[in-house]
Amino acid sequence: MTPTRGPAMTDVARLAGVSHQTVSRVINGHPNVTEATRVKVHEAISELGYRPNTAARALVTGRSRTIGIVGTGNALYGPVSTLYSIESAARQAGYSVVVGVPTSFDESAIITCVRRLQKQGVDGVVVIAPLRTEGGDIAHLAGELPLVAVEGSPAGEMAVVSVDQIAGARAATAHLLGLGHSAVWHVAGPLGWYEAGDRVTGWRLAHEDAGIEPPPTLSGDWTARSGFAAGRELAENADVTAVFAGNDAMALGILRALEVHGKRVPHDVSIVGFDDVPDAEFFSPPLTTIRQEFSEVGVRSVEILLNQIDSGSRSTRRSSIEPSLVIRASSGAARA
Predict the structure, then answer these.
(1) Does 59 or 329 have the greater pLDDT score?
(2) Contact at 8 Å (CB) between 175 and 210?
(3) Average pLDDT of 218-229?
(4) Which residues contact 152 (CB under 8 A, 6 or more apart)?
């Protein structure tokens, strides 16, 4: 029995009433096609269930319309949301995505991952690079192919898209100081992460702005468990009336530790987190936090990468996205 072939480009052309060359132009995003023709072709593609032969198209255009993403391999909210936002923006731009996860986060592993994606024929790569690499900087990769780093090193000749972590931490801390708290304690994320270091910097700057010497930091690892451990220590310190947690998961742990120790939030201790995870408004009490616009991170990363692909020139553009303070019930005025 002869297998039934799938629809071909000529079938699409026949149904749309255009030439197969016109169908090819539409599929490859050629600008010299009227909108009415473009709509007819896409309707025919949808009706027939036609799938373009990407390998053949790549031979003609020199492009695969696929971008690579180097992920971190962990399930933390920030990196996962960043990965999803990039994939979504790429799809909206008509590109498919191949994800690679390095075996570790030293520079050689990242390079190996990028080159593996190159061999798969991607047109460019977005590297989600929130950790400091052991071998230095990955900027030299940008000389080999179109590349954008997300939350990457501020050094090096490459394009970087990042949320302004310093501004976010500064706003979180200033909010608590503005409520009359004499100082704000900070539970920091692991300092191998750029975000964690920048959040410490913003926290310190807010105290400096207010002419206040900041208290010592406590360390966490982004998890609620580490927040709980830090929260138990904070709960035993009568001087603590305000805490800025390095992320919402650690804030959740701190909330639980304070509850166990009979501390009321925000009556006894106010808390601000960072990320605005989807469940933050359902914490008890609802969490004041800093919102990161991950969708904008994805859009800008893909926009900068595609500009490099289209122009054939490398970019060193730095794009910083401003976070915002979301005030909820976990922060309140200092007790008299």
Answers:
(1) 329
(2) no
(3) 97
(4) 127, 129, 138, 158, 160, 162, 194
Secondary structure percentages of the chain, helix, strand, coil, to 5: 45, 15, 40
Amino acid at site 119: K
302 membership: H or E segment, kind and range: helix 294-311
Mean pLDDT for the stretch of residues 315-336: 94
Tell me if 300 sits within 8 A of 84, measured CB to CB: no
Q: What is the secondary structure of 260-298 as a DSSP string?
A: HTT--TTTT-EEE-SB--TTGGGSSSPPBEEE--HHHHH
Task: Quote the CA–CA distance of 276 and 78 in Å, as a whole number.
Answer: 10
Q: To the nearest whole percent, how much of the chain has pLDDT over 70?
A: 90
Strands of the chain (E only): list them: 66-70, 96-100, 124-128, 147-150, 159-163, 185-188, 218-219, 242-245, 270-272, 289-291, 318-321, 324-326
Length of the chain: 336
Whether the predicted pLDDT of 144 surpasses 90? no
What the block records as the tokens of 326 is: 């979301």
Q: Which residues contact 151 (CB under 8 A, 6 or more apart)?
A: 82, 128, 129, 130, 160, 161, 162, 163, 194, 195
